[in-house]
Amino acid sequence: MRFCQQCGAELSAGPQPAQPVPTAQPVPPAQPYQAVQQYAGQYGAAQPGAVFPPQAVQPPAQPSRPGESAGKGKKKTALIVGIIIAVLVVALVAGFGVWWFMLRDSGTQSAQTQSTSQQSGKTKSGDSKAAKDDKPCTAAPDAELSSVDHSDTNLVAQLQLTSNCASTKDGDTAEFKESDVKVSIKDDEGNVIASAVFDFSKQPVKFNGETANVALEFTTRQYWRPYDQIETGSAEVILQTGQSGTGEAGSADGDALAGSDINSEDAERYAQLALSWQLKHDESAASRFYTTYTTQLSSKKTA
Q: Which runs of consecutive H residues, i.e. helices, occur in 135-286?
């Protein structure tokens, strides 16, 4: 208790009358001893019992403790981390909400789009079907041999055709008017007895409902059996599209449609098969001549 707690001066001499002291400038708190020396130089050496104004000297700053600074740093870091985590949580919640609403709206729009697409698909399908029905019939019809006749040396075959195409939007069956259609007539054994290539674009087949009757004329180069030996009930008629013929089609009589020849190799083969069939067919009729005398015809060579 003998020394001043502010400046460190000895107080044993007793109190001295206070002297006027100008306002002291602040002294850095880290140097209390220098502050005492400064005041001593301004007001004289410190006398025993001299009292300095308490405001002249600031108490020295207490140094911060190492643990206290580290604790503050940790608290600050924890606060920053907490703020970042809070911001991330809020952002995730907001993003999830936006995603949920967008997903729901997307699902609704997708359902609406699918419904619209289905309706549009139905409409397009209907329009497509109508457009398809309006197109010419390209599928070869089925055919049956109704009857056979002749015009001079030509064979005239009456055919009943059945359309393989859908009806138009007006309810009518589309016309068949394909060119290069090969029509072949076969017997019950599969032998071709007539064949030619016809151009139906010149004379389209108009169906009455689903069927139509047409007449086709074959020349002597296009059929290989007499017309009266062709059985219509067992004959088969085949139509093939996209076939090419040779030469020009001749002119037919009446409403019959004439055709062009098939290739010569096929025609020669069909002719040979027709001769073999004819020999076999006439064998029973010719056998009676084996025991019957007939006039023998002969000729002499010229000299």
A: 264-286
Q: Are 209 and 173 in contact (CB under 8 A)?
A: yes
Judge residue 177's burial from the number of C-beta atoms within 10 Å of its C-beta, 0-12 exposed, 13-18 middle, 19 or more buried: middle
Considering the chain, what is the average pLDDT of its residues? 75
* pTM value > 0.70: no
First-to-last C-alpha distance (Å) of the chain: 187
CB 26 within 8 A of CB 58: yes
Compute CA distances 95 → 42, 60, 81, 88, 103, whole Å.
72, 55, 21, 10, 12
Could you read off the pLDDT of 251-301 as tens digits, one per residue?
A: 777 789 999 999 999 999 999 999 999 998 888 888 877 777 767 766 666
Residue 153 corresponds to which tokens in the numbers above?
Answer: 């040396």
Cα dist from 141 to 11, 112, 212, 213, whole Å: 140, 44, 10, 12
